[in-house]
């Protein structure tokens, strides 16, 4: 005892508590590292799916633009064509 005060924790007990806390923090750190790696993997998968979807959307937009162009060409051709004239 220190003077008239009673010791609540012995030095060995304090060292054991700190060792336990250090061990818990180390385990928590590796848990967080693993979770971060999993989240990065999921993000990479999401980005890949987004890129694929973006490619499909752009392809569809190009195809729709080509189709509109073909419709305009057909309309122009039909406007120029003389329907009263014989085909042969």
Summarize the structure in words:
With 88 residues, this protein is mainly alpha-helical. Helices cover 80% and strands 0% of the residues. The chain contains one helix and no strands.
- Structural class computed from helices and strand pairing: mainly alpha
Helix share bin: over 70%
Low-confidence stretches: none
Give a count of the beta strands, DSSP E runs of length 2 or more. Answer: 0
Run of helices and strands: H
Gap between N and C termini: 122 Å
Biggest beta-sheet profile: none
Radius of gyration over all CA atoms, rounded: 38 Å
**Structural shape:** rod-shaped
Strand content: under 5%
Query: Treating each run of at least 4 consecutive H or I residues as one helix, how many helices?
Result: 1
How would you state the average pLDDT, rounded? 92
Essential attributes:
88 residues; mainly alpha; 1 helix; 80% helix
Secondary-structure blueprint of this entry?
Blueprint lengths: L10 H70 L8
């Amino acid at each position: 005892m220190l003077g008239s005060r009673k010791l609540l924790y012995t030095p060995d007990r304090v060292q054991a508590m700190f060792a336990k806390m250090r061990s818990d923090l180390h385990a928590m750190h590796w848990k967080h590292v693993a979770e971060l790696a999993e989240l990065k993997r999921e993000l990479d998968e999401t980005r890949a799916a987004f890129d694929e979807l973006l490619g499909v959307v752009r392809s569809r937009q190009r195809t729709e633009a080509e189709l509109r162009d073909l419709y305009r060409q057909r309309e122009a051709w039909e406007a120029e064509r003389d329907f009263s004239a014989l085909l042969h």
